[in-house]
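Incident review: delayed structure delivery

Summary: a single-chain prediction request sat in the queue longer than the usual turnaround. Root cause was a stuck worker, restarted by the on-call engineer. No data loss occurred. The affected request and its eventual output are reproduced below so the record is complete for anyone auditing the incident later.

Affected input:
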Amino acid sequence: MNEDFMDALQQIAREKDIAFEDLRSMVEQALVTAYRKNFAGYTGEIRVHIDPTDNSIHVYRSRTVVDDEVMEPDEMHIDEARLLYPDCESGDTIETEVVQPALARIAAQTAKQVVVQKLREMERDRILAEYSQRVGEVLTGQVQRREYRNVLINIGKIDGVLPPDQQVPSEPYRINDRLKVYVTDVRATPRGPQVTLSRTHTSLIRRLFELEVPEVADGTVIIKAVAREPGARSKIAVFSRDDKVDPVGSCVGHRGSRVQAVVNELYDEKIDVIRWSPDLAQFVSEALSPAKPVAVHITEGGKAALAIVPDVQLSLAIGKCGQNVRLAARLTGCRIDIRSESQAARSDAGPAPTPESTATPTEG
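Output delivered after worker restart:
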């Protein structure tokens, strides 16, 4: 084997990010398969050793020592064997180096196929291991193409799959568009590793704010809850572990720069940043923003809430097609009933004399 071949192995190892020793072992096994085709009728073991110090290749085959007539290709007479191993006895197995036979075309092709297959398997295993550790992360990808209803997005070493149920209908997904995607699943398939991506997952909002807001990334500000209708509107509830840090201001940023960066990434999906409160009545009041309830009554052990809003803010509190109150209910985890002040005054279902919890929010 010449020096060019060894240089080629070194180059392949670098390109494929494989340890040279692993690649050398792989080639040795491939050459074993190829050389075996040159020993007709031989059933013993064959070993190939590539010596990188002098760029040489050594082929060894195992033979059984016999003291009578040699009948099989994998046998060697004891007199001949003792020239190599003086202490050997009949029945011993010895290893002898053989002159390298020229590889036949089919044998050489077999060696190449084995190496290529092994490289593919190693590449697949490495990609599977790498991306399995990235489930739950946000990656930046580039839209490559569409296959049926799936969108394929290049995320580095592999094209991830954005299935239809993880796509936002209002987003265009044009070829070469760059966008951030959330990794939901990685699994092995007969065609190689498959990475499933999402643009609708609620945790995409969390991860985007972690990227844009240092206080969220370092844990000073905590995102307590997220409610989202992908492509339309989201609400996030935030809480600060440091009294000196305003959680809402941190997420919004100077002149809205931080939240606007997230909005731009989500193709202008509206995002309301809500201040979380351990007081459920106060939390419900905040969640109904931009409406400002005059009172919130918690009932059914925290499973339901009645919010009283000014007459002029009734439609604002409910939102278009009920979107605002629906997101507020998801964010707080309780059912919310909204009444205007005039409705509450006319109805016997207004504020109870002794409600379980009542909040009268202040402005701001």
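Verification: The chain has four domains: 3-127, 134-198, 201-276, 278-364.
Action items: add queue-age alerting; document worker restart procedure.
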